[in-house]
Flagellar basal body rod protein FlgB
Amino acid sequence: MIDRLSQDLNFYQSALGLRHQRQEVLAANIANADTPGYKARDFDFASELRKATGQEAGVPPVSLALTSARHIPAQASATQVETLQYRQPVQPSLDGNTVEMDVERVQFADNTMRYQADLALISQRLRSMQSALQQ
């Protein structure tokens, strides 16, 4: 039963970790909006989540090394994004900067909303588990 709860919460842990990383990437884009030659970056959240949860073919789950026979075997969630992609600008600036503030603000707000929704979902899920255990 603990393994099943663990697997369920690992998905949410991966999703929150990736949302956090995306927030940092989008914040870096906004911070460099006036930097000449800066290229806006982002990543495909859905494909990175599939990689992190091991649902994409060819991506083995990350196993933790056991240094003692008394250690409990577990799997780590691989939520580190390795490939950031450059965003194609609709209207590039003359100085080579590809950050479009309107696009970045919308993406930042959308990611924030989804992060908060994920937190609310996790909170509700934990409350329902706690309620089931108390009865």
Remarks:
- The chain has one domain: 2-134.
- The CA atoms of residues 126 and 132 lie 10 Å apart.
- The radius of gyration is 19 Å.
- The first strand starts at residue 41 and ends at 42.
